[in-house]
Amino acid sequence: MSKTEWFSEWFNTSYYHLLYNHRNEPEAENFIKAISETFDFSSGINVCDLACGKGRHSIMCQKLGAKVIGLDISEQSILYAQKFSNERLSFKVADMRTVFANKEFDLVLNLFTSFGYFDTEEEDVLVLKNIYTALKNGGNFLIDYLNIEKVRFEGKVENTLVKDGVTFFTQKYIENGFIIKKISVQDKNDFFYFYEKVKQINLNLFKQMLEEAGFEIKEIWGDYYKNDFNSDSSDRLIIRCLKR
Ligand SMILES: C[S@@+](CC[C@H](N)C(=O)[O-])C[C@H]1O[C@@H](n2cnc3c(N)ncnc32)[C@H](O)[C@@H]1O
After folding, report:
1. Range of 164's domain?
2. Residues 113 and 225 in one domain
3. 3-state secondary structure the chain
4. Is residue 1 part of a domain?
5. Ligand 1 contact, 114 CB (< 6 A)
6. Which residue positions in the chain have pLDDT lower than 70?
């Protein structure tokens, strides 16, 4: 029997959604509105929100006029998102490591650090190649990753948070090229242990991998307001690239 991968387990729990409940619809609305200056959702473009979670960005893109499909490996998140489906908005369980479309989309989104989970660089490049295949010629890919230079600067970070009576103790540190976040959950008398493991991918490595997949980088932003990326201070690393 194959072992469960951490991202299939953790993102499928209600604890993930509780811990990150500040990553909510208003944040998604703000960002999608900001990028609507770049992507003309109102013209009815075809969008894929890859690793869509509960669909907060998909819903907003569709509201602005796009036809949207949200894909995610988490069955629970897709079940939740499907409540918002309509004839121009659908959600499906899918693994980004398998080809999910062929020349279908004007825009593929991969938002809020939904990349870099796999052990090898080959798997990361495979995902980028799948995205390239899924795009029409001239289509855009937008990836929103954490800025690993800032995480490195911050060093080891520990936090205790209580949300809805559930206590989360988190420890974030860098080990063997990955940013690890250990998450201990206390829910009344029950204890659960999870972790996140995200690859240390900086702008240079992204450039290399995106080029290998065939993309041309067009713009780089450092936050959800489309300010320029600064490797020392930006919270996010957001790259817009083009299928030539
Ligand atoms: C940090 S969450 C972000 C979710 C969403 N983009 C948002 O902003 O709310 C990462 C998402 O990636 C999904 N994911 C992880 N591995 C995946 C894979 N191999 N294929 C598709 N989705 C995956 C998880 O289930 C999770 O919903």
Report:
1. 150-197
2. yes
3. CCCCCHHHHHCCCHHHHHHCCCCCHHHHHHHHHHHCCCCCHHHCCEEEEECCCCCHHHHHHHHCCCEEEEEECCHHHHHHHHHHCECCEEEEECCCCCCCCCCCEEEEEECCCCCCCCCCHHHHHHHHHHHHHHEEEEEEEEEEEECHHHHHHHCCEEEEEEECCEEEEEEEEEECCEEEEEEEEEECCEEEEEEEEEECCCHHHHHHHHHHHCEEEEEEECCCCCCECCCCCCCEEEEEEEEC
4. no
5. yes
6. 1-2
